[in-house]
TrEMBL record:
Organism: Gossypium hirsutum (Upland cotton)
Any one GO BP annotation for this protein: lignin catabolic process
Membership in a protein family: Belongs to the multicopper oxidase family.
Annotated catalysed reactions: 4 hydroquinone + O2 = 4 benzosemiquinone + 2 H2O
The protein's required cofactors: Cu cation
UniProt-recorded name of the protein: Laccase
PANTHER family in the cross-refs: LACCASE-13, MULTI-COPPER OXIDASE
């Protein structure tokens, strides 16, 4: 735009600035775009580990399409279900202000999209930028139905770090050499734990260390000296992961679409649902370098102990003397599978880059025990009681094992005033106090099944302490809160002490996240302001634990006026 020299008359000057302000206001809206997409969910043949499976995909792609938008943009995504399963889609980490209808968890904010039906998700990105992702939120469909959601800064706004030469989404996944829905179905029938995965993947490919996989290993060519932003997403179904890149330092600059104070590390630990943005510089000898990921296992339970790889390849890397073949890649040093010390040291370094707006006047102080349990069977020898000692596995928060409704979704029942779908008496503290991480009496191992919500006043300031338990086993449970971001103000091992532990809280620059893990045999504390009305699911993002009941939901009441009230549901919202 060309600007002319202003005249001397005050009235002309004022008029010019008034017009300019109107123009800037209009331009701010003009910069925002509306992105229309069609997601066709259907089975397609996908070959991995020597075998071809009929795999549920989006638009025939595995992983699914990458969505790229800017802060302020609107997405209109029509999901067409041509698969044989009910399905919903969740836009993981998107705030969905006043718009729970677009959030996606089945039977929570919507009834599922039935085979042959469709539903259009409409939502706007508001004051968010960074790496998020989307995935199915119906049983185990997210094993293959997922993709990246990249939110760039608004027009004219730079990154708060060195502009990278290129950006690479890195989606870490899990692969079963069978239909994942059948794996889940068998586990829910027997009451036992489901079979662990057969491979981990990077951008859908297992990598060089698995059978029939090396020809499709993901390769990322780079120029020597350039800086690259890796947008790393743990889209694995059930496993926290360690990730590293041989001979290269990783500079962490963001987690869960929130910027951090940059710090350098050799390895990251990333839980299911979390994202981590790292900068790398191609400053090593031109060669081929493995990026690799394997399990961080905190439970006394079987796990997939394989390693997935991809290759960072310098374009100037020499070939080997053998027939011009590429050099064998250099392998990174990853921590041991149970290296909690490294995982804890990594998460302890995360800080907001500025003084954070942490809620200080707490209206609701909640203590949530999170962990597994066992349901006793009247006939322990039954084929439906194949858990430990003739039981069935369960999981709970504050001894309530969450039951998803089937007659209607929670949000639709709430909006329509339909009784009998849920109650609002979720306990704010454990019903019985005990030594949560000690030797727990077997009388406390069986949770109560119910559909209980906890009601929050609009704009109430909330603190939640997640306390892991040793029932069955201690474990890192990555807890994800829909519709919100929160500050992670503290964590520790053992039982949370409300008298002494708050003195250690970081209320200055804690990291902001949407998913946070409980230290195994420990606790983690978060704070947020309940400024988004609706019903919002809180659950463990290990998908084995979700159907077992490791979930609850907050019912955040409307405030005053239209801008503090849930918007009406769309006309095409699926019915149960």
């Amino acid at each position: 735009m060309e600007y002319h020299k202003l005249g001397d008359k005050p009235c002309s000057s004022h008029l010019f600035f008034a017009i300019l302000l109107v123009f800037v206001f209009i331009a701010s809206f003009a910069d925002a775009a509306i992105h229309f997409h069609q997601f066709v969910i259907e089975a397609k043949p996908v070959k991995r580990l020597c075998r071809t499976h009929s795999t549920i995909t989006v638009n025939g792609q595995f992983p699914g399409p990458t969505l790229e938008v800017r802060d302020g943009d609107t997405l209109v995504i029509t999901a067409i279900n041509r698969a044989r399963y009910n399905v919903t889609l969740h836009w993981h980490g998107v705030r969905q202000l006043r718009n729970p209808w677009a959030d996606g968890p089945e039977y929570v904010t919507q009834c599922p999209i039935q085979p042959g039906r469709s539903y259009t998700y409409r939502f706007t990105i508001q004051n968010q930028e960074g790496t998020l992702w989307w995935h199915a939120h119906s049983r185990w469909l997210r094993a293959t139905v997922y993709g990246a959601l990249i939110i760039y800064p608004g027009m004219g706004r730079p990154y708060p770090f060195l502009m990278p030469k290129k950006e690479i989404p890195i989606l870490l996944g899990e692969w079963w050499d069978r239909n994942p829905m059948d794996v889940l179905r068998l586990a829910l029938f027997t009451g036992a734990a489901p079979n662990v995965s057969d491979a981990f993947t990077i951008n859908g490919q297992p990598g060089d260390l698995y059978r029939c996989s090396s020809k499709e290993t993901a390769v990322f060519p780079v120029e020597a000296g350039e800086t690259i932003l890796l947008r790393i997403i743990n889209s694995a179904l059930n496993q926290e992961l360690f990730f590293g890149l041989a001979n290269h330092k990783l500079t962490v600059v963001a987690v869960d679409a929130s910027y951090t104070k940059p710090f350098t590390t050799n390895v990251i630990m990333i839980a299911p649902g979390q994202t981590t943005d790292v900068l790398i510089t191609a400053d090593q000898q031109p060669a081929r370098y493995y990026m690799a990921a394997h399990a961080y296992n905190t439970a006394n339970a079987p796990f997939d102990n394989t390693t997935t790889t991809a290759i960072l390849e310098y374009k100037s890397a020499p070939c080997s003397a053998k027939k011009g073949q590429p050099l064998k890649p250099i392998f990174p040093q990853l921590p041991g599978f149970n290296d909690t010390a490294t995982a804890t040291a990594f998460t302890a370094q995360l800080r907001s880059p500025y003084k954070a707006d942490v809620p200080m006047k707490i209206d609701e102080s909640l203590l949530f025990t999170v962990g597994l349990g066992l349901i006793n069977c009247t006939n322990p020898n039954s084929p439906r009681c194949q858990g430990p000692n003739g039981t069935r596995f369960a999981a709970s928060i504050n001894n309530v094992s969450f039951v998803f409704p089937r007659r209607n979704s929670l949000m639709q029942a709430y909006y329509q005033g339909q009784p009998g779908i849920f109650t609002t008496d979720f306990p704010p503290v454990p019903p019985i106090q005990f030594d949560y991480t000690g030797n727990v009496s077997r009388g406390l191992w069986q949770p109560v099944k119910a559909t209980k919500l906890f009601k929050l006043r609009y704009r109430s300031q909330v603190q939640v302490v997640f306390q892991d338990t040793s029932i069955v086993t201690v474990e890192d449970h990555p807890m994800h809160l829909h519709g919100y971001e929160f500050y992670v103000i503290g964590s520790g091992f053992g039982n949370f002490n409300p008298r002494t532990d708050p003195a250690k809280f970081n209320l200055i620059d804690p990291p902001r996240r949407n998913t946070i893990g409980t230290p195994p045999g420990g606790w983690v504390a978060i704070r947020f302001e309940a400024d988004n009305p609706g019903i919002w699911l809180l659950h463990c993002h290990i998908d084995t634990h979700l159907p077992w009941g490791l979930a609850m939901a907050f019912l955040v009441e409307n405030g005053v006026g239209e801008l503090q009230t849930v918007q009406p549901p769309p006309l095409d919202l699926p019915q149960c």
